[in-house]
Specification:
The chain is of the alpha+beta class. Among the domains are: 91-285, SH3 type barrels (Roll); 301-514, Beta Barrel (OB fold (Dihydrolipoamide Acetyltransferase, E2P)); 554-725, SH3 type barrels, CATH 2.30.30.140. Residues 36-72 form the MYND-type domain. It is found in: Cytoplasm.
């Protein structure tokens, strides 16, 4: 029994990691565990007739038949001659998407019935792309009329012809009239309903993938109608606030049958919709189901003894039946549980999932035992004894302890194996047998470690939110100790993605404050003095070291980990022993960080543990470099790259974890320097290709920049090869370009003075023309080993392409940046537009661009440079167009702080790539991208995310890298070797097939049709404010421009 849910309807959610799907906060459906409709225990069998109701055995099914036969309806498929096959598709067969709780989702409200029922459409490019594919396929499949009559079933998903436009959509059959001529249909991808004659209903083709409903059914969390139902005034007011608008939706929990999501909506006025409903009197707060508290029980104790003794003479007082022993747990034990009773973070009760079979067997024995004896008026168990009690919700028998007598005939009992209690009539108690007391108590009473309430007690919002978070889920707990008779535990929700620590969720939401982990009352006295080894160790300063290279002229084997330029890269010593120790260290880091619950205070210059993606659970050693309000900049010392991470992604580190020296060694290549002030894109690409593999190095110098190395790769000296390729010069050498530049010094000085004079004349303060077009902008780093379906925003070649970020954009921060961009460009346009004409940005450079659709300025990245115009991709929206040079402005560094929504990527296997891509290879690469490729993140090379792309099995089996290299090798056999790329080589841009645009808000730039590019519109549901043509242009880029796009990651 449970204090808040019936055992007969209880379900558990879980998720397999391999089933995750990156879709704007969506993941694939959770695992559902069914329970017996009669006894409430786990049921692995279903009724053969209706295929819906679960049972644990034939005995329970027979006992339940008298009640079940009234609702049991056959769902056997009737044979019919339709060409679509005989297999019906039911709503439960669809791959239901599960929303990640707490993640903000940008969505439009499709249909609003009331605050308790409305439908939204998440503005995800993948979701809308899937919706378009479904609609397109439906029109193709059902274009021909059917000659076979079809009668659908309730809960079946069919193809339905909508009455307004007579197009085919997926519809759920809600009800069917008695004469089977009309059906009430819910269009699951749009949320609207209508009555449809069966002549316009067809079985859903088996060739269609069972994609989840695109329209999410939602209700407002924590609010119920102020009256019995929502008033029409309320529904009209809310409909005006939401209809046809883009809103921010915050999922809180999944309720009911797991198809309805309890959410809150952030209104444009800055309030949540739940608060709006309460303030205007439309709704009332949802109350939490309560059970008798300890105070209630204590108050009844005094009176209960009198109530018990008053009529106990000559009765069976059951004094022999004492409480069974509890299960023994050890510190460090970790196991999966379900929460059977929740009171607060300080007290909740769980059962082990592994003991479900034992509990089921116990329930069967209890039912059999109690059915053999009639209710006896002579049975009056004394307080503190154990008996059988009939739970009021499901009328099943459970082991219970008599707590108190509230009256002569009413008893308060606590259910031993579930933790909840209730008041029952004396007639609902029966004696128990000794054999039923042999099993230890299956309920484990717990308290959440590392948190304490804020203020005098736990708030009502905290209790309500946490109860929803832990109810009906399989969770994992780890025992940290014992405190006041309860197991002190950390709790993890493994079904969520990323995996959630419940204590951290309470802390981040402000519902709780950090608290030290107290293991028992007996240990509190010992904590006053730091006598333990752990306390002594905590007082000692941490010590660490870095791996070193031999400086006596020996040659050592290295592996490059992060390559920025010949002047700065990081290597590992290629030593199997060190590699094995590093792998073992990662396992120790994971165990240490998962057990750590106390907050970590970061200090600059001190080591710690850090993770940059919680989904994979991997932790790494790091060094704190800088502190910010919204995060911490750390350097991952075993790899060499730096990254800004959230504060809750840091943990303290122990001296044991610092025993192995930091493995990333900073190096630079001796004997060369760049031709200009910086390394060219060609040199960077060539060098990154050469050092990707096993290297042999000899230390020639040690400076503050690290180890100066003489490198050998694939049998050739890397420095000598750079010089021979004319990509570097000998240190101190004056090149022809430098000599020619000396002659223009006077002109440069003259122009500088004129610019200074013009700037002095400007009355309004403006940013000067020293702003540049940076190519070293930082791109987002994708989580390593994560597999997802990418949305390719622009593809230049296998070495360079851009994907849209799968992470939902923070609309508030983006809006702030857009306002800054607009203000900057408005004040700078008169003075800087001419600078863009004189100093053209190179491909890959960041800039500000004026979108032709609304004449507003946006952040952009240059894709291609022509004589009088540029091809740009709008960095926060993914669409592209050609713009005039006068519509380009330099971008200041401050406007690059928020990462772009496009992510710079390169295809894995670049060590085998040619120095110059042929037009055929580029075309082949671009032609493979629309085929639904899957991407797996291999690494981050300091500049780009290295992705492995593979084709789905239904299209073609194989990896894109292998297919591209096969193409290159086939071309090499039929042609001469490709000459080395020179600085002045150019190729003509090549057109590609345009991809579908993601949905955009009102302020999002949209494409303008340009020559050489096709335009495709996407018929997605939109509000009147969003009825704009949406299209995307992607154009090819020359090899030289592609290489200039690659730049270093500033650490």
């Amino acid at each position: 029994p449970s204090g808040y849910t019936s055992a007969s309807t209880w379900k558990m959610d879980g998720t397999y990691a391999e089933d995750r799907q990156n879709m704007s906060g969506h993941i694939l459906p959770a695992l559902t565990v069914h329970f017996c409709n009669y006894c409430g225990q786990q049921g692995n069998f279903r009724c053969r007739r209706c295929k819906k109701t679960s049972y644990c055995s034939v005995v329970c099914q027979a006992e339940d038949w008298n009640a079940h036969r009234h609702v049991c309806k056959s769902v056997e498929v009737e044979p019919h001659g339709d060409a679509f096959g005989t297999q019906r598709i039911y709503f439960k067969d669809l791959h239901m998407a599960k929303v990640i709780q707490g993640t903000e989702i940008q969505a439009t409200v499709l249909e609003f019935y009331s605050p308790s029922r409305f439908f939204i459409l998440a503005q995800s490019s993948e979701l809308l792309g899937a919706l378009q594919n479904i609609i397109t396929e439906l029109q193709k499949i059902y274009s021909c009329p059917s000659t076979t009559a079809y009668v659908p079933c309730v809960d079946e998903v069919c193809a339905v012809q909508y009455s307004t436009d007579l197009k085919w959509y997926r519809g759920l059959v809600k009800t069917l009239t008695a004469d089977q001529k009309m059906a009430k249909i819910l269009y699951i991808d749009y949320g609207n309903e209508e009555d449809v004659p069966v002549e316009r209903i067809r079985p859903l083709a088996n060739t269609l993938k069972p994609f989840s409903p695109c329209a999410m059914e939602c209700c407002i969390v924590g609010v119920v109608p102020a009256a019995t139902t929502w008033s029409s005034e309320c529904c009209i007011a809310i409909r005006q606030l939401l209809a046809g608008k883009m809103v921010t939706v915050i999922p809180v929990e999944t309720v009911g049958n797991s198809h309805v999501h309890a959410v809150d909506i952030l209104l444009s006025m800055g309030k949540n919709l739940s608060v709006f409903l309460l303030e205007h009197g439309y709704g009332a707060k949802e109350t939490v189901n309560t059970t008798p508290t300890e105070q209630d029980i204590s108050a009844m104790v005094c009176a209960s003894l009198d109530n018990f003794k008053r009529l106990s003479d000559g009765k069976d007082d059951n004094t022999w039946a004492q409480t069974p022993e509890s299960m023994t747990q050890a510190v460090g034990d970790s196991f999966s549980v379900v929460v059977t009773h929740f009171q607060s973070p300080d007290k909740f009760v769980v059962q082990k999932v592994e003991n479900a079979g034992v509990i089921q067997e116990l329930q069967l024995k209890l039912r059999e035992h109690c059915s053999q004896f009639p209710v006896s008026s002579n049975f009056r168990p004394a307080p503190g004894t154990v008996c059988c009690a009939q739970f009021s919700e499901d009328k099943q028998w459970y082991r219970a302890k008599v707590l108190a007598y509230s009256s002569d005939k009413h008893v308060c009992v606590g259910y031993l194996d579930f933790g909840n209690c209730e008041e029952v009539d004396l007639s609902q108690l029966q004696p128990i047998s000794p054999s039923l007391l042999a099993l230890p108590i299956q309920a484990v009473t717990c308290s959440l470690a590392g948190v304490q309430h804020v203020g005098e007690g736990w708030s009502e919002d905290c209790l309500l939110t946490l109860q929803r978070r832990v109810s009906n889920r399989i969770l994992r707990i780890k025992i940290q100790g014992a405190h006041e008779g309860k197991a002190l535990v950390t709790m993890f929700d493994e079904a969520s993605d990323p995996q959630a620590n419940v204590a951290e969720l309470l802390l981040s939401a402000g519902y709780a404050a950090p608290a030290p982990v107290n293991t028992s009352n007996d240990q509190q006295a010992e904590k006053t003095t730091p006598s333990s080894a752990q306390d002594t160790q905590a007082l000692e300063p941490l010590k660490w070291s870095w791996a070193e290279l031999p400086c006596e002229g020996q040659t050592v084997a290295l592996l490059a980990s992060v390559v920025l330029s010949p002047g700065k890269f990081y290597c590992h010593i290629n030593n199997p022993t060190d590699c094995q120790q590093l792998m073992e260290l990662r396992s120790e880091l994971k165990l240490h960080c998962e057990a750590a619950t106390t907050p970590f205070e970061a200090k600059v210059g001190e080591p710690c543990c850090a993770t940059y993606h919680t989904g994979d659970g991997a932790w790494y050693r790091a060094m704190v470099k800088e502190l910010y309000e919204d995060g911490v900049l750390v350097k991952f010392v075993d790899h060499g790259f730096s990254m800004k991470v959230a504060k809750n992604h840091l943990r303290s580190i122990t001296a044991k974890l610092l025993t192995l020296p930091f493995q990333a060694i900073r190096c630079w290549l001796t004997g060369v320097e760049p031709l200009g002030s910086e390394w060219s894109s060609e040199a960077l690409l060539w060098f990154q290709t050469q050092v990707n593999g096993k290297l042999y190095a000899r230390v020639l110098s040690v400076t503050e920049k690290g180890y100066g190395l003489e490198l050998e790769s694939r049998g050739q000296n890397v420095a000598a090869a750079l010089l021979s390729q004319q990509l570097a010069k000998i240190p101190g050498e004056i090149t022809k370009d430098m000599q020619a530049a000396v002659g223009s010094v006077d002109i440069l000085q003259k122009n500088t003075k004129e610019n200074e004079h013009r700037q002095m004349e400007n009355k309004a303060p403006r940013e000067t023309a020293t702003q540049s077009f940076p190519v070293d902008w930082k791109t987002m780093t994708l989580p390593i080993n994560e597999t997802f379906k990418p949305y390719i925003a622009a593809a230049v070649s296998p070495s360079l392409f851009y994907v849209l970020s799968p992470v939902q954009v923070d609309e508030k921060k983006l809006q702030e940046v857009m306002l800054e961009v607009a203000a900057y460009c408005k004040s700078s346009e008169p003075s800087l537009s001419s600078a863009a004409v004189v100093n053209k940005p190179v491909p890959g450079a960041a800039c500000c661009a004026k979108f032709s659709g609304d004449n507003n300025w946006y952040r952009a990245v240059v894709l291609d440079v022509c004589e009088n115009e540029l091809k740009v991709i709008y960095a926060d929206y993914g669409n592209s167009e050609k713009v005039s040079l006068s519509h380009i402005l330099p971008i200041p560094t401050r406007l690059l702080q928020l990462p772009f929504q496009i992510i710079r990527c390169t295809l894995a296997g670049k060590e085998h790539f040619p120095s110059e891509w042929s037009e055929e290879a580029q075309q082949m690469f671009k032609s493979l991208l629309p085929n639904g490729v899957l991407a797996t993140v291999q690494s981050f090379d300091g500049s780009d995310n290295v992705l492995s792309l593979s084709l789905p099995t239904e299209n073609a089996s194989g990896h894109v890298t292998a297919m591209i290299l096969d193409k290159v090798q086939a071309q090499a056999k039929n042609s001469c070797p490709t000459p080395n790329l020179k600085a002045d080589s150019t190729t003509a841009p090549t057109d590609t097939k345009a991809a579908l645009d993601p949905p955009k808000s009102k302020l999002v730039p949209e494409d303008k049709t340009t020559s050489g590019c096709t335009k495709t519109t996407e018929p997605t549901p939109q509000s009147p404010e969003q009825l704009q043509v949406q299209n995307k242009n992607t154009c090819a880029q020359s090899v030289k421009e592609k290489m200039e796009d690659l730049s270093t990651l500033a650490l």
